[in-house]
Design brief:
Blueprint (H helix, E strand, L loop, with lengths): L1 E5 L8 H9 L3 E5 L14 E4 L14 H14 L4 E4 L1 H9 L4 E2 L6 E9 L1 H4 L10 E8 L2 E2 L6 E5 L7 E4 L3 E4 L7 H8 L3 H4 L2 H10 L1 H18 L4
Parallel strand pairs: 1-2, 1-3, 3-4, 4-11
Antiparallel strand pairs: 5-8, 6-7, 6-9, 9-10, 10-11
Length: 229
């Protein structure tokens, strides 16, 4: 079964819940932030780790992150197909020994372009996507590309947008799982972003068709890699 790890009550599976239902893929969401136990790894045919407002180093305030890291480490050892989104990608990078920088100079917010590297353009995760596609960004922290990993994507503001380690473990900095409701909710988090809510929503709306197409394609590709479709 596909295991989805949700680390923050305000960072849900979003549109990907709808896409998984359409594709008939069964999944289980583990809400680690309220202490739900992670399943035995043998139950996971693939894993998606979602984002969160916390950082990878915030284990004192969010002790469950230590368990998530251990789970990711074990998944890598067993070569379980893995997709880490934003914090999920940062956790993957951290487990692999790469630097994850809090409040880095590469922070981004909004509906913005992502460009595939040469390796990304031929990677199965991005099959069928244009070399430049639209996604959604909402991060202050950023990861370095781990040693031995393949750099797959970048953006004008953030050079490290995606990587792959091995054949089937991926980390992204961008968010492919967004819907309009989540954009509106995240925009309300701080006075600075609340003042830009109309901007964030109008930009998302204007690129919604492109965004959904790229996001659906990426998820379908990951599910094919995991042999779930």
């Amino acid at each position: 079964m596909l295991i989805v790890i949700q680390n923050d009550p305000e960072v849900p599976l979003g549109a990907y819940a709808d896409y998984l239902a359409e594709l008939g893929v069964k999944y289980r969401t583990v809400h680690t932030y309220v202490g739900e136990a992670l399943p035995p790894l043998m139950e996971a045919s693939a894993i998606i780790v979602l984002g969160g407002a916390m950082g990878v180093h915030d284990t004192d305030r969010h002790p469950f992150l230590a368990g998530v890291k251990s789970f990711i480490r074990a998944a890598l050892e067993r070569e379980v197909p893995f997709l880490g989104i934003c914090l999920g990608g940062q956790l993957l990078a951290d487990v692999l020994g790469a630097r994850v920088t809090a409040n880095s100079p590469y922070g981004e917010k909004g509906t913005l372009p992502v460009t595939l590297t040469g390796a990304g353009a031929v990677d199965p995760l991005f099959a069928g996507l244009d070399r430049q596609f639209v996604s959604f960004q909402w991060h202050n922290d950023s990861f370095a590309i781990p040693v031995g990993a393949v750099h797959l994507a970048s953006s004008p503001a953030c050079p490290n947008q995606a990587f792959r380690i091995g054949t089937s473990a991926f980390g992204t900095q961008f968010h492919p799982e967004m819907n309009r409701q989540i954009v509106a909710e995240w925009s309300s988090w701080t006075p600075a972003t609340a003042a830009r809510t109309s901007e964030f929503l109008s930009r998302f709306d204007s690129r919604a068709a492109e965004y959904r197409s790229a996001s659906r394609c990426l998820l379908a590709n990951f599910l094919r890699i995991a042999r779930l479709v």
